[in-house]
């Protein structure tokens, strides 16, 4: 019991000594770091507090600068990054700052761009720490690069110049306080370990030895963890990290589209009056012209354009090309004007339709449906209800005679194949007549 009590008293005394040493070590560490006595250390700490507040404001700017719009050019995005770096460049003040950046660059060939980046790294003295590349329909490459902080700005400029800059994120983290805190904790932990080792050497009781060894292992483990955290911070401070993402432009899906506007007007002039009116009112028998304005509203050339109107009994061969050329592919934004001349018939109506084939850059057909939008004209034809005149009667009689003669010709044509039947019957009758005996 006396030995146990003695060990406990020694342990409490050692803890008090460690606490005192910690305070002394912190003060000596501050004097060592700032190169002077306590007063100069206090003065330098105040200046660093002001710098730290500036860093906090700059960090907020960097944190908010997450995505540069795709519409910005390389110069604009690069200028933003440089502004952040200028405000965060506190290396000359002896601060411990971790610089990181993420760049998204669009390139024509991911593999070729990766090789170009390797050449850039050689000129920067940088190191490629990791690379992940995928090929296929959406090629992509992610490279992790380490570079000295004094070449960080230059590295951003050169890497962004590999292709078209899509986005850029720059961040600076001031870890000076964490480094100082870890160094102080490591010093305190090392003193505590040394004290335990001294107690362990002086211990003679087995139980005390076991207890001290277990506590020593725990504190040595904590000390190594602290040293590992400090090494990680120092490594991050000594080399800035840049992650560059390389992608290729996404192939644009063709969207062929066509718009046709149907109009009309009274009269025949070869389509010179096209386009006409959206609403047309005429009498039966009037001469009218139907116009078709065809516009390529998509992003793909169109060929084999065919315009029809089944309600007007119009085929694509009946149209007159007023403007444009049906034999030439209709490029995006271009238009055609077609005309169809006819006579107003109240039994007819407008029912326009159009067909076209989407073409690629080489003029080859694409298996893509063309989206069609049609604006139909409103055609009103008044039926003629007046009494027929002499000319109308003569015309009607002539049409009736034509129909009668047509019926006769049709009947004769249908009877000709059967003319042999009466001829055969007459021949049979004559033959039987000759074979009958003469009554005389």
Q: Supply the number of structural domains.
A: 2
Gross morphology is elongated
- Strand content range: 15-25%
Mean pLDDT: 77
- Helicity, as a percent range: 40-55%
Order of helices and strands: HHHEHEEHEHHEEEEEEEEEEHH
Q: Within the largest sheet, what's the order of strands?
A: 2-3-5-1-4
Radius of gyration using CA atoms only:
49 Å
Largest sheet data: 5 strands, mixed
Overall SS class:
alpha+beta
Low-confidence stretches: 1-91
Would you kindly provide a written description of the structure presented here, covering whatever features stand out?
With 440 residues, this protein is an alpha+beta fold. It has 2 domains: 1-251, no CATH class; 257-382, Immunoglobulin-like, CATH 2.60.40. Helices cover 46% and strands 25% of the residues. It has helices at residues 2-34, 38-64, 74-88, 110-124, 152-160, 176-202, 206-238, 390-415, 420-435; strands at 97-106, 127-134, 140-147, 164-174, 240-247, 257-266, 279-283, 287-296, 302-309, 320-323, 335-343, 352-358, 371-375, 378-382. The strands form 4 sheets. It has a 5-stranded mixed sheet with strand order 2-3-5-1-4. Strands 10-11-8-6-13 form a 5-stranded mixed sheet, with no helix packed on it. A two-stranded parallel sheet has the order 7-14. α1 (2-34) packs across α2 and α1 (2-34) packs antiparallel against α6 (176-202). The longest helix is centred in the N-terminal third of the chain and has 33 residues, at 2-34. The radius of gyration is 49 Å and the shape is elongated. The model is unreliable at 1-91 (pLDDT under 50).
């Amino acid at each position: 019991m006396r030995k146990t009590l003695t060990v406990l008293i020694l342990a409490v005394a050692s803890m008090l000594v460690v606490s005192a040493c910690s305070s002394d070590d912190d003060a000596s560490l501050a004097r060592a770091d700032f190169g002077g006595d306590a007063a100069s250390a206090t003065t330098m700490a105040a200046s660093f507090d002001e710098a730290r507040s500036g860093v906090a404001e700059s960090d907020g700017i960097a944190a908010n600068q997450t995505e540069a719009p795709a519409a910005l050019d390389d110069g604009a995005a690069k200028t933003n990054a440089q502004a952040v770096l200028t405000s965060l460049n506190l290396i000359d003040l002896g601060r411990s700052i971790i610089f990181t950046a993420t760049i998204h660059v669009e390139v024509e060939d991911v593999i070729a761009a990766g090789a170009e980046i390797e050449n850039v790294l050689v000129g920067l003295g940088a190191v490629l720490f990791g690379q992940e590349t995928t090929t296929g329909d959406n090629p992509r490459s992610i490279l992790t690069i380490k570079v000295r902080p004094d070449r960080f700005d230059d590295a951003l400029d050169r890497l962004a110049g590999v292709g078209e800059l899509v986005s850029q994120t720059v961040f600076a983290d001031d870890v000076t306080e964490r480094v100082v805190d870890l160094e102080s904790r490591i010093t305190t932990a090392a003193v505590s370990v040394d004290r335990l080792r001294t107690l362990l050497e002086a211990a003679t009781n087995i139980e005390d030895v076991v207890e001290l060894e277990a506590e020593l292992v725990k504190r040595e483990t904590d000390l190594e963890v602290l040293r590992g955290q400090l090494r990680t911070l120092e490594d991050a401070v000594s080399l800035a990290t840049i992650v560059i993402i390389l992608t290729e432009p996404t192939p644009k899906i063709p969207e062929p589209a066509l718009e046709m506007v149907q109009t009309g007007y009274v009269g025949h002039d070869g389509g010179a009056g096209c386009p006409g009116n959206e609403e047309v009112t005429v009498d039966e028998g009037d001469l009218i012209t139907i116009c078709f304005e065809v516009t390529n509203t998509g992003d793909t050339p169109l060929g084999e354009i065919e315009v029809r109107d089944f309600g007007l009994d119009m085929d694509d061969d009946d149209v007159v090309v007023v403007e444009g050329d049906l034999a030439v592919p209709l490029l995006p934004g271009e238009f055609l004007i077609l005309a169809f001349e006819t006579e107003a018939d109240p039994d007819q109506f407008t029912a326009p339709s159009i067909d076209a084939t989407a073409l690629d850059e080489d003029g080859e057909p694409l298996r893509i449906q063309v989206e069609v939008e049609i604006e139909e004209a409103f055609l009103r034809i008044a039926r003629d209800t007046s009494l027929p005149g002499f000319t109308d009667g003569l015309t009607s009689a002539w049409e009736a005679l034509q129909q009668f003669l047509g019926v006769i010709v049709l009947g004769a044509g249908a009877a000709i194949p059967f003319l042999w039947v009466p001829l055969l019957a007459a021949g049979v009758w004559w033959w039987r007549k000759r074979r009958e005996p003469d009554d005389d």
